[in-house]
Give the backbone structure.
Amino acid sequence: MSGAGVVADHESHPLFLPLVFIGGAVFGVGLAVSQMARPEIVLEFLQFRDLGLAFVMGGASVVVGVTFWALTLSGRSAPLTGKRFGRRLKSMDRDVIVGGGVFGVGWGLSGICPGAAYASLGIGNVVILYGVAGMFLGAYLQGYLRESRVESGAAATAD
Amino acid sequence: MNEPVLLVDALFPRGITQYLLGGILIGLGTVIIYLGTGIHAGASTFLESTLSYASKLKRFQRPRFVSSRDWRVVFTLGIVAGAAGYSIALGDFGWTTEVQPWRLFVGGILIGIGTRLGKGCTSGHGVCGVGSGSRTSILNVGIFMLVAIGVAQLVMAAGVTP
């Protein structure tokens, strides 16, 4: 495996993976409780038939926002990794806009998003595997196309 | 006198308790991982990092995917297990969607492309990014929300159900 040597140091802490699993499990319970694991509920939100879903993203981002803000200000580092606490800031470019638009079409058509799809599988909704398969295919397609674009770009520059 | 009550009933026919509680738990799951590791866990990077196990494309073999792919699998398994545990405890495990497979599949492809191109999804941008006050994330969420509303309304108007 080409990647076998590139295991990050922080993954060596014995509590790292158990903590990620517990956090994921709480996250999954939240997706089930909030009904976001059911595409029908998401579609009803987008069609203005039940606006309750606004409280899901709202509630989650407030809890996360307060924590990120307080710990970033503290200037401390995370105990298991030594990673400095910070906010999630991504650079702005055209891809952020185009990607958001493409994701929006998919979300509006299907009523699923990545996290909710994994949780949907958890509640026994096997039909969601069509969606999960689609997501992997889409992620592969964009990687394939972007790589060939970069390579043809590099070849053009070399000429 | 009763009009505001009727309006609330119309906008929130199922109440808001489960939505707010679920949202707080989603936030709490993110916070648990952040408190221990400093990592902003989003759900969609899992797609590319997991592809790195199977694909030799340089795009997927970048260190940021290879070094995080193991914990991202564990995070996703945690999501599946948590949702499974909850539905089993409630006795409604095995619910299946009526939304047609082609909508899930085609939607899934667009979600796979869009979230990776746009650097995040409903959890990465919508929860972690918005919680961080990131302008990039707020713009991305505004766009996918408006587009999704438009598409879902069109689908409904075209009579595609479920």
About this structure: Residues 1-39 of chain B form one domain. Residues 135-157 of chain B form the longest helix (23 residues).
